[in-house]
Design brief:
Elements: E1 8-16, H1 22-44, H2 49-61, E2 82-88, E3 93-100, H3 106-113, E4 120-121, H4 123-132, H5 143-154, E5 177-178, E6 181-186, E7 192-198, E8 218-220, E9 224-230, H6 232-238, H7 240-249, H8 254-267, E10 272-278, E11 283-287, E12 291-297, E13 302-304, E14 314-317
Parallel strand pairs: 3-4
Antiparallel strand pairs: 1-5, 1-6, 1-12, 2-3, 2-7, 6-7, 8-9, 9-10, 10-11, 11-14, 12-13
Helix pairs in contact: 1-2, 2-3, 7-8
């Protein structure tokens, strides 16, 4: 099959402080690369951007190391509530679920809602949808996340968030980061899509809503697509994903849009990160935190952002 457009892909597993030790870096790299490889092969075989994004999010949600799906953090009452969204850039269509419980892959509910007249559902509506679709009940709890929550309860929830990566050595320092997963894809037909999924900050007030099921944290048009990670409140305050996409739509290059948006976020002392693609196939990432756990395929090779200098705010792989 002759490719109309060389597909591009970038995924992330959260952002936060530096990974503890080389073992942590290598384990995360292996996990991310395996997912990039599988999803990119789907794009080469002709999968649409939305199909690739959903599959990538499923795989990231199934990886207990990341804070989405299996391995999601616990809220202050010890319950897991997850949020996810999908945006098809060609259709200009956003869908998502907020604070859904006891499902394995929240992104699948977001996918179903793409064809619904009611495209964003909160906890009760999401639970009812899962029952209608006969989605099997699933317990996303892992032992590491349970121990993290027990430790925080003993400390009266002094941490503002849980660890970005669930690793045994990180349970002792659970305020090490913030977790979300995301996928942005450009398919062979030139279409863009983005998906984002999260278990939340961890230890938060019941009913708190993250940016992951809002356009602020996940947005795509025919010009650009962005998935965000970091402190949800900071992402919402910056309206980060649409800000970047609108700047590209208005004629700014993806690199320029990222640089300006992250300069503003840095000035405002935000704690966040983002991955992005544009319709030409340029790949970009940005962060105000120490590290963003991102990996990509640019059509020729796979790469990642795991060991960038901590003061590197924006990176871009430009075509041509």
């Amino acid at each position: 099959m002759k490719l109309q457009v060389q597909p591009k892909l970038i995924i992330h597993g959260g952002a936060g402080s530096s990974l503890h030790g080389k073992g942590g870096v290598e384990a995360v790299r292996r996990a991310l690369y395996a997912i990039v490889e599988e999803v990119y092969s789907l794009l080469l075989a002709g999968a649409t951007a939305s199909e690739a994004v959903v599959r990538g999010c499923q795989l990231l949600e199934d990886e207990p190391r990341f804070n989405a799906g299996t391995g999601s953090v616990l809220q202050s009452d010890g319950q897991i509530r997850m949020s996810a969204s999908l945006m098809d850039g060609t259709l200009g269509r956003f869908s998502g679920v907020i604070n859904v419980s006891r499902v394995k892959n929240p992104i699948e509910l977001a996918l179903f809602l793409q064809s619904s007249p009611d495209r964003v559902l909160s906890d009760y509506g999401s639970a009812e949808l899962a029952r209608e679709l006969q989605v099997p009940s699933y317990n996303a709890l892992t032992e590491l996340r349970l121990q993290e929550w027990i430790q925080e309860r003993q400390d009266n929830f002094k941490s503002t968030m849980a660890g970005v990566v669930a690793e045994p050595e990180l349970v002792e320092t659970s305020n090490a980061g913030r977790g979300t997963i995301g996928v942005v894809a450009l398919d062979t037909y030139g279409n863009l899509a983005s998906g984002t999924s999260t278990g939340g900050k961890g230890f938060e007030r019941i009913g708190r809503v993250s940016d992951s099921a809002m356009p602020a944290g996940n947005y795509a048009t025919q010009y650009a697509a962005v998935s965000c990670t970091g402190i949800g409140e900071d992402i919402i305050d910056e309206c980060l994903a649409p800000k970047i996409v609108v700047r590209v739509t208005d004629g700014m290059s993806l690199k320029e849009a990222m640089q300006r948006s992250f300069a503003e976020a840095h000035k405002n002392e935000r704690d966040l990160g983002a991955i992005a693609l544009d319709a030409s196939g340029n790949i970009a990432w940005g962060k105000t935190s120490e590290v963003i756990l991102a990996a990509y395929h640019n059509g020729e090779y796979m790469g990642d952002t795991l060991e960038l200098p901590t003061d590197t705010e924006v990176g871009c792989i430009s075509i041509g």
